[in-house]
Write a structure and sequence with these properties.
mainly alpha
């Protein structure tokens, strides 16, 4: 567990010292560059016991390396309908048969795309990276390789979803589905992601959730009769088992928090309604995960948007930049000759400073809460160890 906690500590220390003390894009780039290298190295040097699916994907890479193009296009290729992942394996296998190099390539893609996303689209990149690490998304990338790459690709579609540009959104979703076919569910999401959030829509979402949970088994039996027959096998039925309520705790708490402060998030940017809806979907899907683990696969797609949403939340309660500009304009009170105007300007300045101080305190407390919850959540994930993240061993130390 120590390696993961040291990673979180590094994010916090560098985030505060580099990104918070002096806010600028250059510092954000330095921070993201350093953390990306650290995460990529952690992923590269890990032993094959770190990540429950490591061996499965390592064996597939060996099959691609040994079988070449003929294996890739044959029925023996279990990922033939996900050509992006198959081709990634194939191109790396042309260079080397070392599975560790393939894991390095996967990490470069996953972590690199995440860092690029945060640099361009997050108001607080260091907070986004902290959420990425502490909420388990980085840990997932050490095991769920296909889904992690697919989600990293899809996250770039959110910008076009916000702007209601269907064609580029669709193309990115299709590209993501080339790594994990479950991403195709995001196509119909385009048409509901801008729905206003109020008590009516929340009631509808709640009723739909109850209906899906009530009809899950009949629907499952119908689907597996004609498609996805694997899930009807003894091994596949594992995904129909439920998780305990702890699994849903943080996603649901995140959703409730977002609903409480959604007014401020929307004031900052009305297009953030997309991220708010994603948070609602993730909360509901994680509730359904308590009945069937299968829902977590879809909930994870929406929950990952927290790396963008939580920084938006903190930015929405931070000091207003427009007020700061107004304060700068009236900072020199000596330019006012008229006593009445000077007094009015002084009162305005005092009010703005008071508002800024209040926002700063709220921001500091909110940031502290995010960091505290992140550490607790990450500790819970590591203690549960459902995907074999601990003990963290490297291929240098593993016997």
């Amino acid at each position: 567990m120590l390696a993961y906690f040291l990673l979180l500590l590094l994010i916090v220390v560098l985030g505060v010292c580099v990104c918070e003390i002096k806010v600028c894009r250059r510092n954000n780039a330095i921070f993201l560059g350093i953390l990306s290298v650290v995460m990529i190295v952690m992923s590269f040097i890990r032993a094959n016991t770190v990540g429950i699916d490591y061996v499965q994907y390592a064996n597939y890479f060996t099959q691609v390396h040994d079988g070449g193009w003929s294996f890739l296009i044959s029925n023996a290729n279990g990922y033939r309908i996900e050509p992006g992942y198959s081709l990634l394996n194939y191109f790396v296998s042309l260079l080397t048969g070392d599975v560790r190099i393939f894991m390095l390539a996967v990490s470069i893609v996953t972590v690199g795309l995440t860092a690029l996303l945060l640099y361009h689209y997050s108001p607080k990149p260091w907070i986004g990276m902290f959420v990425f690490a502490s909420f388990g998304f980085f840990g997932n990338s050490l095991s769920f390789l296909r889904q992690s790459i697919a989600i990293a690709v899809f996250m770039f579609a959110i910008k076009y979803l916000k702007d209601k540009r269907f064609l580029p959104y669709l193309l990115i979703v299709i590209a993501a589905a080339c790594f994990h076919k479950a991403m195709l569910i995001m196509i119909p999401v385009y048409f509901i992601a801008h729905i206003k959030v109020n008590w009516k829509t929340l009631s509808i979402y709640g009723c739909l959730t109850v209906a899906v949970m009530a009809l899950s088994w009949p629907f499952f039996n119908f689907i597996t009769k004609y498609a996805y027959q694997y899930y009807a096998t003894q091994g596949g039925l594992y995904y129909m088992n439920g998780r305990d309520w702890n699994t849903a705790a943080i996603p649901v708490i995140t959703t409730i928090t977002i609903l409480i402060v959604k007014k401020y998030i929307l004031q900052r940017d009305p297009k953030n309604i997309v991220l708010i809806n994603f948070s609602i979907y993730s909360g509901l899907l994680y509730i359904m995960t308590c009945q069937h683990f299968l829902f977590q696969r879809f909930g994870m797609i929406f929950f990952t948007s927290a790396i963008l949403l939580i920084p938006e939340l903190l930015a929405s309660v931070d000091a207003n930049s427009e007020e700061a500009e107004t304060l700068n304009n009236i900072d020199n009170l000596r330019v006012y000759k008229d006593k009445g105007k000077k007094k009015k300007a002084f009162q305005e300045r005092r009010q703005i400073k008071s508002n800024q101080n209040m926002h700063k305190y709220i921001y500091y407390y909110a940031t502290g809460a995010v960091l505290f919850i992140g550490f607790i959540y990450n500790a819970w994930i590591l203690i549960q160890n459902r995907i074999n993240l601990t003990p963290y061993l490297t291929f240098f130390t593993k016997k």
